[in-house]
């Protein structure tokens, strides 16, 4: 989590911004993060076929 992310995803979100986030993204739970914390990650797997298969 970078400094710019904390305005919406940090521990101290302005109340007027919280109201907008709650209205537009009612299921959002991506809050309470601190600088440098991991906010999300994903992996991708793909089987690669070779000429011998």
Describe this structure in words.
The structure is a single chain. The chain starts with 5 loop residues before the first helix and ends in a 29-residue tail after the last helix. It is built from two helices and no strands. With about 55 residues, the chain is mostly helical. The chain has helices at about 5-10, 15-25.
Tag the structure with descriptive keywords.
mainly alpha, 53 residues, 0% strand
Count of the domains: 1
By secondary-structure content and strand pairing, the structural class works out as mainly alpha
Number of helices: 2
Radius of gyration: 18 Å
The backbone outline, from C-alpha atoms, is elongated
Percent in strands: under 5%
Oligomer: single chain
Mean pLDDT: 91
Order of helices and strands: HH
Distance between the termini: 43 Å
Would you identify the regions where 5 or more consecutive residues have pLDDT less than 50?
A: none
Largest sheet report? none
Number of strands: 0
Tell me the helix content.
25-40%
How would you concisely characterize the structure shown here?
The protein has 53 residues and is mostly helical. The chain has helices spanning 6-9, 15-24.
Summarize the helices and strands and which ones pair or pack:
Elements lengths: L5 H4 L5 H10 L29
């Amino acid at each position: 989590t970078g400094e710019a992310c904390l305005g919406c995803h940090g521990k101290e979100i302005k109340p007027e911004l919280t109201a907008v986030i709650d209205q537009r993204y009612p299921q959002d739970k991506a809050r309470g993060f601190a600088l440098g914390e991991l906010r999300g990650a994903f992996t991708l797997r793909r089987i690669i076929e070779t000429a011998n298969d």
